[in-house]
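Weekly structure sync, notes
Attendees: PL (lead), two postdocs, one rotation student
Agenda item 3: pending single-chain targets
PL asked that the sequence for the first pending target be pasted directly into the notes so everyone works from the same version. It is reproduced below exactly as submitted, 177 residues in total.
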Amino acid sequence: MVKPIYLAMGAIPVIVALLISVPMITKNEIPMSAANSFDKIEIEYTKHQLKIVSFGVTERTGAQKTEILLIKNNGDIKYSVTDNGYLQPDIKSKLDEKKLDKIRALIKETGFIAIPSESFAILDDVTEYQKSNVKITLNGRTNQIHWPEQNATSVFIPPIITMVELELDQIISKISE
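Predicted structure, written out during the meeting:
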């Protein structure tokens, strides 16, 4: 029979771990403490609106629209669009420090840079879909991930990828207005 004192001593670390982890798990914001001013980050985010064209025996996948968002460490933004083969004029802007810190914290705190680069197979019956790519360099370490929209693949796309995609899409919509 286990003595009650041993049970109490064993329960103390479990209670402390719960007190620490529950607020972190239930909080739906990324802690800003993860980002610091010494972190160097560069982000290249690309979205392709793809269409599969059949030539009888062969098929070709072509981009109807391509959007490229470049974010430099100092917050400088360059947004380029190619629509039906025609390059539109670049839009240059500046990201405020708060938004840059939020993205920096999101990438650093969630371990995005450590996500393995895996391929997502496209379903056979899909002829038009969006494929995204993000290349992130954080403190000299680079990770590049390619993924299609969720309804174009049977593989589950991790939520962290869609969180980063949502943040970058918000930046695009804000500067392209």
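Discussion points:
- Residues 4-26 form the longest helix (23 residues).
- The helical segments are 4-26, 97-110, 159-175.
Action: rotation student to compare against the earlier draft before next sync.
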